[in-house]
Amino acid sequence: MPEGDTVFRAVHRLRTALAGKTLSDSDFRIPRYATTDLSGARVESVRSVGKHLFIDLLRPSGIPVSIHSHLMMEGLWDVHTIGAKWRRPWHTARVVLRAGDIEAVGFDLGVLELLADPGPAVAHLGPDLLGDDWDAARAVENLAAAPDTPIGIALLDQRSLAGVGNVYRSELCFMRRVHPATPTAAVDLPPLVDLAHRLLTANRLRVTRVTTGATGRGRELWVYGRDRRPCRRCGTAVERGMLGEPPAERSIYVCPRCQTR
C-alpha cells in the first residue's frame, strides 16, 4: 500500500500540473459520478493528509467541491500531456481531469468521492507526518494510549499518526532495535516518532525510498523485503513473519539478533 511519502509525491506532481488552472474537461468513470461535469472549475489546491489526497476546486457558480481519493493497494495518479500513452490500461482509469494540454488520470483508486466538506473524511486521523501542522507530542500521546498493542500494529493505526505503512513499519522498528511485536508501553516512543518524521520528510520527493542512506540499487532499505538475506548490521539472516489478526494480518521483516523480543 502506498505510504505517506508516495501520496505526497503524487500531490506534488498534480499540484505542479493543475494548481491555479481551470478544468476544460472531467470524466468520472464510476457509476456514482458518471454524469458529473467539473469543466470550468478552478483548481484551488492539491494536498495530502496522511494517505488521503484532495483536489480542491471552485465551481463557476462559486460553490467549492473536493475530489477525495485514496490509493489503497494499487492506486496511482499519473500526469502527462494529452495524447501521451497511458501507463495503465484504459479500463483501470477511475477519473480523468484535463486542463489545457495536461491530463491527470487516477487509476485503480480505492476511494474516489466528491465532497462539499472534506474535513470529516480525515477527522479521525492522527497528526500528519508530512503536514505543516505536524505535532510529535500528540503522536506520542496517541501511541501511548494503547500500551498493550504491539508497536508494529500501533504504527499502522492512522488514528495515532498518519502516513506510516508496512515498509516504514519494518524499517523504523529495525532502526530503533525494537521487535514489531513489542508492546507499545515497552518502547521509547519519542525517538521512534521523531525518526518516522525524519524518514518520511527525507523521502517525500524521492522516486526511490531510502532508509539506509545508501542510494545504490538494492541497498536502499535495511530489512523490508530482504528475508533470508544477511542483516546489514550484524549479518544474521533477516526473517519474514506476520503480525496482526486476519484479515488485517500483514508481513513484518526483522533481524532476530538486532530485534530480540
UniProtKB/TrEMBL annotation:
Domain FPG-type: 222-260
UniProtKB keywords: DNA damage, DNA repair, DNA-binding, Glycosidase, Hydrolase, Lyase, Metal-binding, Multifunctional enzyme, Zinc, Zinc-finger
Enzyme class: lyase
Keyword Transcription regulation: no
Pfam families linked to this entry: Fapy_DNA_glyco, H2TH
Family according to the record: Belongs to the FPG family.
Protein name: DNA-(apurinic or apyrimidinic site) lyase
The species this protein was found in: Gordonia sihwensis NBRC 108236
